[in-house]
Fold this protein.
Amino acid sequence: MNVTMIDLLRHGECEGGSIYRGSTDVALSDLGWQQMQASAESLIQASGKSAENTPWDHIVSSPLQRCHKFSDEKSQQWQIPVSIENQFREMHFGDWEGRELNEVWQSDQESVKKFYSDPEEYSPPNGETVIEVRDRLALAWDAMMTEHRGKHLLLVQHGGTIRVLLTWLLRMPLSGITQFNIPYAGVCRIKVMEDSDGRQHPSIIFLNSTEPE
Protein backbone atom coordinates (compact mmCIF):
# COMPACT_ATOMS: atom_id res chain seq x y z
CA MET A 1 0.00 0.00 0.00
CA ASN A 2 1.35 3.41 -0.99
CA VAL A 3 1.76 5.97 1.83
CA THR A 4 2.08 9.75 1.46
CA MET A 5 2.72 11.99 4.48
CA ILE A 6 1.72 15.66 4.48
CA ASP A 7 2.69 18.10 7.23
CA LEU A 8 0.49 21.19 7.13
CA LEU A 9 2.12 24.27 8.62
CA ARG A 10 0.11 27.43 9.11
CA HIS A 11 1.92 30.73 8.66
CA GLY A 12 2.86 32.71 11.77
CA GLU A 13 1.68 36.06 13.08
CA CYS A 14 1.44 38.75 10.40
CA GLU A 15 1.85 42.48 10.22
CA GLY A 16 -1.35 44.50 10.22
CA GLY A 17 -2.99 43.29 13.42
CA SER A 18 -6.33 41.48 13.72
CA ILE A 19 -7.78 41.86 10.24
CA TYR A 20 -9.55 39.74 7.66
CA ARG A 21 -6.39 39.22 5.64
CA GLY A 22 -7.59 36.47 3.29
CA SER A 23 -6.12 37.48 -0.06
CA THR A 24 -4.60 40.66 1.45
CA ASP A 25 -0.90 39.99 0.91
CA VAL A 26 0.80 41.06 4.12
CA ALA A 27 4.19 40.04 5.46
CA LEU A 28 5.02 37.97 8.51
CA SER A 29 5.96 39.87 11.64
CA ASP A 30 9.31 39.06 13.26
CA LEU A 31 7.42 36.98 15.82
CA GLY A 32 5.55 35.18 13.05
CA TRP A 33 8.80 34.14 11.40
CA GLN A 34 10.12 32.89 14.73
CA GLN A 35 6.91 30.91 15.30
CA MET A 36 7.23 29.13 11.97
CA GLN A 37 10.91 28.48 12.51
CA ALA A 38 10.19 26.94 15.92
CA SER A 39 7.42 24.71 14.54
CA ALA A 40 9.58 23.52 11.65
CA GLU A 41 12.47 22.76 14.02
CA SER A 42 10.13 20.81 16.32
CA LEU A 43 8.91 18.69 13.41
CA ILE A 44 12.48 18.02 12.29
CA GLN A 45 13.59 17.05 15.81
CA ALA A 46 10.54 14.83 16.37
CA SER A 47 11.37 12.96 13.16
CA GLY A 48 14.93 12.29 14.34
CA LYS A 49 16.30 14.29 11.42
CA SER A 50 18.35 17.48 11.19
CA ALA A 51 18.33 20.75 9.23
CA GLU A 52 20.86 19.12 6.88
CA ASN A 53 18.60 16.09 6.39
CA THR A 54 14.97 17.09 6.92
CA PRO A 55 12.09 14.58 6.77
CA TRP A 56 10.57 16.36 3.75
CA ASP A 57 11.07 15.60 0.08
CA HIS A 58 9.26 18.70 -1.21
CA ILE A 59 7.64 21.95 0.00
CA VAL A 60 4.29 23.09 -1.42
CA SER A 61 3.22 26.64 -0.56
CA SER A 62 0.47 29.19 -0.92
CA PRO A 63 1.51 32.08 -3.19
CA LEU A 64 0.87 34.69 -0.49
CA GLN A 65 4.09 36.09 0.98
CA ARG A 66 3.30 35.09 4.57
CA CYS A 67 3.71 31.52 3.34
CA HIS A 68 5.94 31.56 0.28
CA LYS A 69 8.79 33.71 1.63
CA PHE A 70 9.36 31.27 4.46
CA SER A 71 8.99 28.35 2.03
CA ASP A 72 11.47 29.87 -0.44
CA GLU A 73 14.10 30.49 2.22
CA LYS A 74 13.74 27.03 3.74
CA SER A 75 13.88 25.43 0.31
CA GLN A 76 17.31 26.97 -0.18
CA GLN A 77 18.47 26.24 3.36
CA TRP A 78 17.32 22.62 3.34
CA GLN A 79 18.18 22.02 -0.32
CA ILE A 80 14.77 20.61 -1.22
CA PRO A 81 12.47 21.80 -4.04
CA VAL A 82 9.49 24.10 -3.50
CA SER A 83 6.30 24.56 -5.54
CA ILE A 84 4.15 27.69 -5.23
CA GLU A 85 0.53 26.71 -5.93
CA ASN A 86 -2.06 29.45 -6.47
CA GLN A 87 -5.01 27.20 -5.61
CA PHE A 88 -3.70 26.87 -2.05
CA ARG A 89 -4.20 30.61 -1.39
CA GLU A 90 -6.39 31.75 1.51
CA MET A 91 -10.12 32.42 1.20
CA HIS A 92 -11.10 35.82 -0.21
CA PHE A 93 -13.26 37.72 2.31
CA GLY A 94 -14.85 40.15 -0.13
CA ASP A 95 -15.99 43.39 1.49
CA TRP A 96 -14.26 42.41 4.73
CA GLU A 97 -10.80 42.12 3.18
CA GLY A 98 -8.11 44.08 5.02
CA ARG A 99 -10.53 45.44 7.62
CA GLU A 100 -10.16 44.99 11.39
CA LEU A 101 -12.26 42.20 12.88
CA ASN A 102 -13.82 44.49 15.48
CA GLU A 103 -14.71 47.12 12.88
CA VAL A 104 -16.45 44.54 10.68
CA TRP A 105 -18.29 43.18 13.72
CA GLN A 106 -19.55 46.63 14.65
CA SER A 107 -20.69 47.47 11.11
CA ASP A 108 -22.03 44.09 9.93
CA GLN A 109 -22.85 41.91 12.93
CA GLU A 110 -25.66 40.01 11.24
CA SER A 111 -23.50 38.88 8.31
CA VAL A 112 -20.66 37.87 10.62
CA LYS A 113 -23.00 35.82 12.81
CA LYS A 114 -24.50 34.07 9.78
CA PHE A 115 -21.10 33.25 8.31
CA TYR A 116 -19.68 31.71 11.47
CA SER A 117 -22.86 29.83 12.39
CA ASP A 118 -23.47 28.42 8.89
CA PRO A 119 -20.45 28.98 6.59
CA GLU A 120 -21.80 26.56 4.00
CA GLU A 121 -24.87 28.73 3.46
CA TYR A 122 -23.54 32.23 4.12
CA SER A 123 -20.41 33.98 2.82
CA PRO A 124 -18.77 37.34 3.48
CA PRO A 125 -20.45 39.96 1.24
CA ASN A 126 -18.94 39.72 -2.26
CA GLY A 127 -16.50 37.13 -0.95
CA GLU A 128 -15.55 33.62 -1.95
CA THR A 129 -17.91 30.90 -0.76
CA VAL A 130 -16.57 28.10 1.42
CA ILE A 131 -17.80 25.66 -1.23
CA GLU A 132 -15.69 27.43 -3.85
CA VAL A 133 -12.70 27.29 -1.51
CA ARG A 134 -13.24 23.58 -0.87
CA ASP A 135 -13.52 22.79 -4.57
CA ARG A 136 -10.29 24.55 -5.56
CA LEU A 137 -8.44 23.07 -2.58
CA ALA A 138 -9.66 19.59 -3.52
CA LEU A 139 -8.33 20.04 -7.05
CA ALA A 140 -5.00 21.32 -5.73
CA TRP A 141 -4.76 18.47 -3.22
CA ASP A 142 -5.50 15.80 -5.82
CA ALA A 143 -2.91 17.28 -8.20
CA MET A 144 -0.35 17.39 -5.39
CA MET A 145 -1.05 13.79 -4.43
CA THR A 146 -0.67 12.63 -8.03
CA GLU A 147 2.62 14.47 -8.51
CA HIS A 148 4.16 13.61 -5.15
CA ARG A 149 2.66 10.22 -4.36
CA GLY A 150 4.64 8.29 -1.75
CA LYS A 151 6.64 11.32 -0.56
CA HIS A 152 6.76 13.33 2.67
CA LEU A 153 5.57 16.88 1.98
CA LEU A 154 5.54 20.16 3.88
CA LEU A 155 2.41 22.11 2.89
CA VAL A 156 2.62 25.74 4.04
CA GLN A 157 -0.88 27.09 4.40
CA HIS A 158 -3.46 29.35 6.05
CA GLY A 159 -5.82 28.86 8.98
CA GLY A 160 -8.92 28.95 6.81
CA THR A 161 -7.67 26.61 4.11
CA ILE A 162 -6.31 24.10 6.63
CA ARG A 163 -9.73 23.96 8.31
CA VAL A 164 -11.50 23.47 4.98
CA LEU A 165 -9.03 20.78 3.92
CA LEU A 166 -9.53 18.89 7.18
CA THR A 167 -13.31 18.87 6.87
CA TRP A 168 -13.05 17.69 3.25
CA LEU A 169 -10.50 14.98 3.97
CA LEU A 170 -12.48 13.70 6.96
CA ARG A 171 -15.80 13.91 5.07
CA MET A 172 -17.25 16.32 7.60
CA PRO A 173 -19.85 18.99 6.83
CA LEU A 174 -18.31 22.36 6.02
CA SER A 175 -19.79 23.75 9.23
CA GLY A 176 -17.02 21.74 10.91
CA ILE A 177 -14.45 24.39 9.98
CA THR A 178 -15.34 26.27 13.15
CA GLN A 179 -14.43 23.25 15.29
CA PHE A 180 -10.72 23.18 14.46
CA ASN A 181 -8.33 25.36 16.43
CA ILE A 182 -5.40 26.14 14.12
CA PRO A 183 -3.06 28.63 15.86
CA TYR A 184 -0.32 30.63 14.19
CA ALA A 185 2.40 28.21 13.07
CA GLY A 186 0.20 25.30 14.10
CA VAL A 187 1.08 21.94 12.56
CA CYS A 188 -1.00 18.99 11.47
CA ARG A 189 0.19 15.71 9.95
CA ILE A 190 -1.99 13.78 7.52
CA LYS A 191 -1.18 10.22 6.50
CA VAL A 192 -2.75 9.12 3.21
CA MET A 193 -2.78 5.41 2.45
CA GLU A 194 -3.64 4.43 -1.11
CA ASP A 195 -4.94 0.93 -1.73
CA SER A 196 -4.49 -1.21 -4.83
CA ASP A 197 -7.66 0.26 -6.36
CA GLY A 198 -6.27 3.80 -6.10
CA ARG A 199 -8.62 4.80 -3.29
CA GLN A 200 -7.10 7.18 -0.76
CA HIS A 201 -7.62 6.80 2.99
CA PRO A 202 -6.47 9.91 4.89
CA SER A 203 -6.08 10.05 8.66
CA ILE A 204 -4.86 12.71 11.10
CA ILE A 205 -1.69 11.59 12.88
CA PHE A 206 -1.50 14.70 15.06
CA LEU A 207 -2.97 18.20 15.29
CA ASN A 208 -1.18 21.16 16.94
CA SER A 209 1.60 18.86 18.07
CA THR A 210 4.74 17.32 16.60
CA GLU A 211 4.19 13.68 17.43
CA PRO A 212 1.31 11.20 17.72
CA GLU A 213 -0.65 11.13 20.98
Notes: The beta strands are 2-10, 58-61, 82-84, 152-157, 187-194, 200-207. The chain is about 35% helix and 20% strand.
